[in-house]
Amino acid sequence: MKRVNPALPLTLLLASATSGVTHAEKYDFTLHGYMRSGILANSDGNRVNSVGLMPDGKFRLGNEDDTKIELIPQVMLTSDSGVVAKIQANITHQSKCTSDWNCLDDDDKPVQFREGYVELSNLDFAPDVTFWGGKRYSSSNTSSHQFDWEYIQYNGTGGGFDKLDLGFAQLDAGVYAFTPTDETKAYPVDRGDQGYPDDYSLNVWLKKIAGSPVDLQLIGHHMNNSELHADAAEKGYGLTGVYNFDGFYGVLGGSSRFVVQYGRGLAAGDSLGKNGWGWANLDDTQSWRLILDGLAALDNGWEVSTFAYYQQDKNYRWWSSDSEGWGRTSWVAGVRPYQQITKNFAMQYEVGYEYLDDKNYKGVEGKGKGGLTKVTVAPTLTFDSGYWSRPQLRLYATWAKWDKGVSDALDGNYDWSTNTIGSGGYSRSGKSDTLNVGIQGEVWF
C-alpha cells in the first residue's frame, strides 16, 4: 500500500483554513496537542506490553509501552458582529491503534482524523449558547489521568449545543452516531433494510442543578440488529450523576468528584458511560458503577492523586453470542504521590490494585478471577513545578504481581479467527510477577 505523507493532511487543512477569511474581523490560529512515547522492558531485557487486568484503563505510571501523538489545529474566526466560529480537527497516530471510532487498516498504523467540527457562539438570538456540528469529542468527557481511562466518553459524528441556561441548571445536549469498526457494517438481520446498523446516542446533561455541585446526565441509545448479533439489544438508556467537591472531598485543597453510573441494554457493559461498545449486549444486560477521583494538594511540594471504582455487570456479554450472558465484577484502587523536590526535579510513586471476577472472560471460558498489584517509582525531570506540569521526562521501575487465576486476562492475546485466548506475554513463562523498567516523555501543549 502506498503511504501518504502524514504532514500532507495538516498542510491541506492549514491552506484551506487560511484562504478566503478576509470577511472575518479577526482570525487566530493555534496548535495544541498531546504526545507520549517511551520504552518498557522487563528484567530479561525484553520489550514488554503494559500490565493490567481491565478491558478499559490501567494504572499508567511506568506502564505505557506505546507512542501516541495528537495534533489539534484550531482556527478561531470573529465576525464584525461578534459571532465566534471555532474550527477544530484532531489528527492522531498511535502505535497501538485504539482510536475508538476511526481505527482503520490497523496493520498500516495510519494517521486518524478523530475530530473535525465547527462551533458557533455569541449568535444574536442566543449569545451564551455554543452550537456545534461534525465529528467531535463531547465537551463533557471525563477521565482519570492516573488510570488512563475516560469513564465518561461520548464521541462521534453529530451535532448539538452546550451552555443553554434553563434558570435552574445549564443544559448541554447532543446526538452522536458512533461507527467504531467493521463490526457495524455487517448486514442487518433483514437484508431488505437499506444501510447498516449504527449506534445513535442522545446525550443530555443538566449541570450545576439549582446552583449545587451536582451534574446529571441522561443517555439513550438505538441500534438496529446485525446478523452477527441478531438477538442483541436494539436500545438502551443510562444515567450518570456527578458530585463535584470543593477541594479534595471538602477536607484539603485540590479537586475531586464522586460519580454514580447505571446502564441497561445498549448503555450497559462496555458501553457504560460511553457510546458504541454495546453491540452484543442483551436487552436485560445491566451495569452500575461507583467512582472516586481526586487530587489532593498538600504542603512542601506534595500532591497526591487518587482513583478508585467498583462495577458490577449482570447478564453481561462480551462480543460473543452466549445466549444469556454472565456476571462480572471489577474494582480498582490506587494512589500516586507526587513530590516536587526542586523546580525541575520531582519524584513520583504509585501503588495500584485491580480485581477482576469475570465468569467467562471474553466469552471463551477463560479464567478471570483474582487481583493484580502494581508498584512504580519514577524520578522525573519537569519543565515547571506541579503534578500537571508538562513536559515531563521519566525514568521508572515497576514491579507487578498477580494471582494465577487472572493469567488469561493478563495481557491475553485474543485470536479472532479461532475465538480463543492465547498465552499472554506475562503468563507464558508461568511467572506471576515482573519487574519492568523504562523511560518516557510526555507533553501536552
Automatic annotation (TrEMBL):
The way this protein sits in the membrane is described as: Multi-pass membrane protein
What is its subcellular localisation?
Cell outer membrane
Q: Give the SUPFAM superfamilies listed for this entry.
A: Porins (SSF56935)
Q: Which terms are listed as keywords in the entry?
A: Cell outer membrane, Ion transport, Membrane, Porin, Signal, Transmembrane, Transmembrane beta strand, Transport
**Keyword Cell membrane applies:** no
A single GO molecular-function term is: carbohydrate transmembrane transporter activity
Entry's Gene3D superfamilies? Answer: Porin, LamB type (2.40.170.10)
User: Which first-to-last residue range defines the signal peptide?
Assistant: 1-24
Protein's name in the database? Maltoporin
Q: Which organism is it from?
A: Duffyella gerundensis
